[in-house]
Amino acid sequence: TELAAQGVNTRLDITIGNEDLSSVIKKLEQKANVAFAYDEVFLKLADKHTNAASYQNESLKNILTALLKGQEIGFKEQAGNIILYRQFTGRISGRITDESGQPLPGASVSIVGTSFGMMTDADGKYNISLPEGTYTVAASFVGYTRVESANVTINGNQVTTLNIRLVAGNQLKEVTVSYGKQRIKEVTGSLTQVDAAPLQDMPVMQFAQQLQGKAAGVQIAQSSGQPGRGVEFRIRGAASFYASNQPLVVIDGTPVTGSINNMNPAEIESFSILKDASATALYGSRAANGVILITTKHAKPGDAQIEFNANYGVQKIPGERVPKMMDARGFAQYMNEKFADSRQYEPGYTTATPADYLNPEQYGEGTNWYKLLTRTAPIQSYDITIRSAREKSSSTVMAGYQEQQGVLINTGTKLFSLRINQDLSLSNNKLKIGFNLAPSYRLDHNNRLGTDGVGGLFERIFEASPLKSPYNADGSYNRDTYSPGMVAYINPLAQFNLTNDDYKTTRILANGYLNYEFLTGLSIKTNVAIDKGGETRQYFQSGVVTSTIGQATGTNSSVDNGSYTAEANLVYRKSFGDHNFEALAGYSAQKYSGTNNTLTGLGYPSDDISYLTAATSLSAGNSTYTAYSLLSTIGRLNYNYKGKYLLQGAIRRDGSSRFGSNQSYGNFPSVSAGWVVSDEKFMDRFSFLNLMKIRASYGVTGNNFFPGYYDAQATIGKYYYEFGGAAVAGQTINRLANDDLRWERNKQFDLGFDLSLFNNRLNFTYDYYHKISDGLIMQRPIPKASGFTSILDNVGAIELWGHEFTVNSNNLTGKLKWTTNLNVSFDRNMIKNLVSPGYIRRNNTVSSDYFRQQEGHHLGEFYGFVFLGLYKDANDLANSAKYGSASDVGTIKVKDINGDGVIDDVNDRTFIGDPTPTFTGGLTNNFVYKNWDLNIHMSFSVGGKILNAAKWAYQTNLDGSRVMLAAAADRWRSPENPGSGVYPRTKTGTTAMGRQVNSQWVEDGSYLTAKNISLGYRFNLGEKFLVRSLRVYTSVQQAFVLTKYSGMNPEINFAGLDPTLGIGVDENAYPIPRTFSFGASATFK
Amino acid sequence: CKKDFIDLTPKDSYTDATFYKTVDQFKQADIAAYAPLRDVLVNDYFTSEMRSDNTIYQPYPSNRGTAYLYRESISNFTNTSTNDYVNAVWQHCYTGISRTNIVIERLKTTDFDAATKAPIDGQAKFLRALYYFKLVRLFGGVPLFLKEVTKTEEAFLPRSAADAVYTQIIADAKDAISELSAPSKFPQTGEATKGSATMLLAEVYATQKKWADAETQLNTLSAMGYGLNANYADAFTPGNKNNKESIFDIQFLEGIVLGTTPNPLPFHFLPRSTNTSIITGININNSSTGGWNTPTQDLINTYEPNDKRLDASIGIVEGTYNASDLFVYSANKSVIGYTPAAGKMGVPYIKKYEHPPLIAVTGSSDNFPIYRYSDALLLLAEAQNEQGKSPLTALNTVRSRAGLPATTTADQAVLRDIIAHERRVELAFENHRWNDLVRTGKAVNVMNAFGAVLKTQVNYLTPDTYNLTANKLLYPIPQPEIDLNPGQMTQNPGY
Q1: Stretches in chain B below the pLDDT threshold 70
Q2: What is the pLDDT averaged over residues A487-511?
Q3: Is this prediction's pTM over 0.80?
């Protein structure tokens, strides 16, 4: 019993010499007073020898372990005896890879509960000798989730293979970066990765709509509801006045030269948004506004499947945002009062009230033009993705059809798209070849008409008289739908229905690449890409609605354009111990060219035949050719030490055809560094901390996207005159050359901080950036006495800076999974300098000179009079500055800025509002419970101002020339009846001030929009079904908008595609519809 | 290939480096310098005719947009330096000047022979003088651009003194006279001739009161073949363009095919209406373009009895204004002895440029006269009278064509008024009246008196209208020119 109690834990002192094992065992038996059970012959104890050793107060267990090591003998205590038995050694080996199957060198593999373990080699392989038995094998790598494989049996003299695939926490995932891929952990630039899969529920036609509010510092706004159009990007503020503020879009490594809205969002696997100079410098001259790298879907081995998605939705303009206009009774009442007031208060005014307005009570609502011209319209999309991949080849085919009818009648767009991605990997992965081909065909019907903006068709809806019917008694269209006193605009219903403007666009994006690793670590990568487009336009407007009655007009045009990009890079990767290098050198050439033929016909005998063959004369015609080219050399060096200290330097030199002949070339260098603090020893104690990284970058990028192709050259224009009874064509210079026009340069500094906590459940990223965009390109106004109005020039510099915060959190990981993404950015700007006289006006009016760019002010600050209310009474009028004879009691009173006692257009206008928001961002919450998922995505903007020109210049035109907001009925009529104090009186000749920009127009543009709410359910069907999984979902796009802004769309901030229109100006844009949709996606395996 | 790859020039047009090589290209560059004459004209009828007592506008109380306010304010003398229409005259004159500078400067570097260069250079110099003459009379001293602008910095010049501008105009006009030929035939082509330049120089001298110099120039014209048509109205018929009475016209060609240059002014000069076919013979909606340059009753009243020019120059369109302030035409009436039909009103319109039916809604083929031979005769009469010589031959040539009795008085002061009046009616609506009033020092008195009467007749004029001082004889320098060129570009007094 004593013995049993002690067993292998018995402690003893013993000295062992160089003797045979048989005698040593016997010595131990006596010394420790334990019983051994063994077969001496089978174990060949007499043939095995021990090394000399001396033990003091050591346990029998440890002594035996030491003595039996390498002797192929094991021991265990059983029923009071210590049994010695023959023990064999086995091996375990395998490979540790990441999700994509790439080996992970340096991963650690350990056998739980033992001291066995090792690091993987350069190929991610390990090989461990182990005694027979059953073990738990653990694999881990920084940034990856640790994997333990239990019940791994090792048999003697056998090799057990165990490959382990580690799943990365965020920071070790590879992301697409310029010219390649990189692990997030090693990225030193400011980059946001967005996975496209969760965005697929959105019933939208443009991928940009999916990205709204998804990434800090990336503002995306939909400035118009035109089908398939009107989405704008701003990455870290608008850095240009005149050149494009849109980022460069690169699809699978190919920069896109034209429009990006022919891309079916369903083809996209992921987005990488590059924001700072180090990340974008490799795109040099085109990267000043950031770069969006799009990776399309490519099949991976084991991925064979067919996926089918269908989505159908209905769109409707949110009713609560539509301006409440006067109806027929209200407008007749208003006009009746207006004429009565004029006769009562204006000496000499004798005009009788027109018969139409004499008895307002006879009218009800009248014609509701808004209802007639808008509709609930369908939006639908269907796509199929077929993926198959073998070890060495992969093929992905995606076909899609999308259709969006406009919420304005008789508008819509359809897109047919196909993408084929073929990849081959040969010669032990040393040779990779691929071809991507993406043809698309788009049919645009009336969705490029001038519906938006001043004089646009959408504005006209609110300007037609509710007293008038759109039709004549015989059912034909009534052209003149204005009431007495109103401007003679043409029936908008007839305009929408009798105008046909169809564009048919064919586009082929194609590229082929070849990567070959011809020496270990040294590869060549080549890529040739083509972007080919063709477009025809068929425009016809019936003579019923043309500005000249009866003059039906038709235009037919065709465009043929294309660009190619050819690139070759050499990449060399090498590690010396813990020093890892990657060097890249490359060369790239890009050329775009396009031809455009247009003919306009007049004199169509009827509306029946709308082709030019029916026209009796051709009034205009031209054919043009445009081209630009870009030639670049690039170099990049990445270095890291132990993956902990990261350094990157890059330079690109670009030559562009778009600049002055003296300034064709530009250099775009960048440097960046990172420190993975969490990899330091001293951080080990913070076990909750998975990653902490500090990074910084500085670099220069450029901008060569500005309107026109040869605008730095003086071209010869045509000017017709007449001599001797015949037309003669004159020709001379039509614009000034600027041989010194140079790149717009964007010098950007970025400081970033990444943190991952609690097993990567909480991720936090912060970036501070500061950039100076100098050499801003703009049409610089010059004195007209020069014979020219402007010259394309480098006009000044703007400073932009900001803070960006992103939090990704896995709040709940159990049965109910809940993740949250919040991003907030604070963007600021200041115009540092501008050419003389230090400011650039929008234009030379007072009615649409909405903003001016001025030194020491923010970008696009609104400019106008300061509204002080209405002149209350004769005393107020007498003691206030007046705007000539247009000021009277009850009219708009503005501030006398220069204090000279009179109001004038030149001296009494000032800055009245800043359109730049205080902060913007997005919030996405995703819930998964069992088979259910719920996604709520919101975006917000706080503090930006909007200039509501649509409301004040058009919808409150108190001279009665347009229908007004119902609220304007509560205007000043007399001192006894002063109304709300907002709307002035209608006295003849005094209402013009209401249409001059003043501070009354400036509103808070803050908003919170529920961009998308979607709810899905997944049916997991077993292997016996053809359909393996089926997910059905329903979603609401643009679910609600919380804003105090009184216009239709607080996202108007970008006012159309032309940056010269400024930011935050609302000029009657087509509103964004709300979309309810239902969809299903099925996977076949 | 490296540099070539990014060295792109347009293939669909010339550039300044590839153009201006051949004689024909220089001729085309000259044609391009004529084109802005039309752009000047569509704005200058506000600044040179509606500014005077010859014409006013049709009020549009229900549309107070700036496009209307600006144009009305020129007529009312309430315009400011931000007036788009005044500023457009400035801009388009300078566009023309810039095109002439390009021809004149670049022609110097060619090796064409002198006989080839002369007509090209002469036309450019004539046009440059004409544009500068328009500018200096409307704005006073202006920046004197004489070289092609090729760089940003060259676009910023200070104002020159008016005298310096006049010196340049005279030099250019003299060059043009020596380089250009007299019309080789009538009808002429419409190009500037020795006669055009001679007339221009004479008017410059008249403006400077260099009467003898003016007379010398004017006396050379008859030898060039000019003469009066039998009928006053014949001078304006599109079928009789560039006849012997025409010294220089702005050319127009109707039609809707490419390259035609129709004259839209006939619609601008009619009351705003959705249908003007009673006058134009074609359904034209001029509700957004019309209502301007309406002959005043003051002018109508000033024609002598039996003056054939009244009926040839002015017509009456009868109808009613609807509540949208659009005129519904009901009849085309003669101005002679006109009384409105019951319930109707008559609006006078400029008849000399209305030749219906038009073939297209884009405009007519009516040329717009800059200089006619009757202008030369009346200027000659004025030059003679101012020197104490008898002006009667020249004066009575014009009067007798109008069906009026010969003037016989020898009193210089009386003759001065007769000649001025004769110029007013003979040259009505040809953009001479305002300049004549300023040139003869009568503008302030005449226009204040005119305005005082007008205010009693119409209800749309506010008290600040028609308050002329000497400062209003010049227009303000366009505000954007001052804003862009601070320090160098100064404003005229009173603005």
Answers
A1: 1-3
A2: 90
A3: yes
User: A183-194: per-residue pLDDT in tens?
Assistant: 777 777 777 778
Whether residues A623 and B157 touch (CB distance < 8 A) is answered with no
Best CA proximity match to B57, nearest among B268, B330, B320: B268
Question: Alpha-carbon torsion A956, A959, A963, A964, what sign?
Answer: positive
Q: Is A616 on the interface with B (CB under 8 A)?
A: no
Give the DSSP H/E element, type plus range, for residue B29: helix B23-34
SS3 sequence, A867-917?
EEEECCCHHHHHCCCECHHHCCCCCEEECCCCCCCECCCCCCCEEEECCCC
pLDDT at res. B212: 97
DSSP three-state, residue B357: coil
Q: For an interface test with B, which of A588, A709, A732, A958 has the most B Cβ atoms less than 10 Å from its Cβ?
A: A732
- For residue A865, the distance in angstroms to the closest alpha carbon of chain B comes to 16
**Does A989 sit within 8 Å of B462, measured CB to CB?**
yes
With a cut of 50, say whether residue A943 has pLDDT above it. yes
Going from N- to C-terminal start, the domains of chain B cover 19-180+441-495, 265-366
For residue A642, the 8-state DSSP code is T
pLDDT at A452: 67
The Cα–Cα gap between A940 and A1011 comes to: 10
Q: For chain A, where do the domains classified as CATH 2.60.40.1120 start and end?
A: 89-168
Q: What is the CATH number of domain B19-180+441-495?
A: 1.25.40.390
The Cα A984–Cα A181 span in angstroms is 62
pLDDT at A782 over 70: yes
Domain A2-86 CATH (choose: 3.20.70.20, 3.55.50.30, 3.40.50.300, 3.40.50.970)? 3.55.50.30
CB-nearest to A781 from B2, B484, B489 is: B484
CA triple B46-B52-B55, angle to 5 deg: 70
Confidence band of A2 (pLDDT split at 50, 70, 90): very low
Shortest CB distance from A780 goes to which of B15, B152, B256? B152
pLDDT at A1057 over 60: no
The β-bridge partners of A386 are A306, A397
Q: Which of A628, A719, A855, A892 to mutate to test the interface with B (most CBs of B within 10 A)?
A: A719
Tell me, what's the pLDDT at A5?
Answer: 46
A816 is written with which tokens? Answer: 């109910």
What is the distance in angstroms between the Cα of B146 and the nearest Cα belonging to chain A?
Answer: 10
Within chain A, all domains assigned CATH 3.55.50.30 are found at 2-86
Q: How far apart are CA A691 and CA A672, in angstroms?
A: 19
Cross-chain Cβ contact A348/B459 below 8 Å: yes
Compare all CA atoms of chain B with the CA of A886 and give the residue at the minimum distance. B462
| Contacting residues for B450 by C-beta, under 8 A, at least 6 apart | B53, B296, B298, B466
Coil/strand/helix, residue B259 = coil
Q: Which CATH number is A89-168 given?
A: 2.60.40.1120
Give the nearest partner residue to B326 out of A488, A845, A995, using CB atoms: A488
The ipTM of this complex is: 0.95
* Direct distance between the N- and C-terminal alpha carbons of chain A, in angstroms, rounded to an integer: 65
The helix, strand and coil proportions of chain B, stated in percent and rounded to the nearest 5, come to 50, 10, 45
Contacts of A991 in chain B (CB under 8 A): 64
Task: Please name every residue paired with A665 in a beta bridge, in sequence order, or none if there are none.
Answer: A655
For chain A, give the longest Cα–Cα distance. 138
User: Cβ of A662 under 8 Å from any chain B Cβ?
Assistant: no
Q: Does A845 touch chain B (CB under 8 A)?
A: yes
Q: What percent of chain A has pLDDT over 90?
A: 31
Which of A479, A784, A985, A986 to mutate to probe the B interface, most B CBs <10 Å?
A: A784
For residue A179, pLDDT over 70 is answered with: no
The predicted pLDDT at position A3 comes to 42
Out of A487, A591, A723, whose CB is closest to B251?
A723
